[in-house]
Design brief:
Layout lengths: L8 H17 L5 E6 L4 E6 L6 H15 L4 H9 L17 E6 L2 E9 L3 H16 L2
Helix pairs in contact: 1-4
Amino acid sequence: MAHKPVLSLAEAKTIAAAAQAEALRNDWKVVIAVVDDGGNLLYLQREHDTSFGAVETAIAKAYAAVAFQRPTKMSEEAVLSGRLIHLALPRVIPAEGGVPIWHEGVLIGGLGISGVRAFQDGQIAAAGIAILESR
């Protein structure tokens, strides 16, 4: 039987803490969502006074990053360059801030950030993912 790595709740919290640290450094209030490799919500945190609409957006970004195995920024760039088919893909959020989480070449989850401008969401997500690379 094959074995594969999975994203634990503790690891999800570590990723979220690194993302939150980046948001706090910039005084940005965001929602941070971490999903497992099936797109199921594993961990969510919402900074006080962040819009409630950002909750579903963060989850959707994390889900899309897992479903399509690529950062949501790629869909954003595709739409901006005229490839509007990305708007019709199921549950795609064509805005930066969703990134897949990989471990030794295996997709184990996704991270989604929402609450500030898309490029800022992306900056926060990159900080969250970077914690895995530093280990």
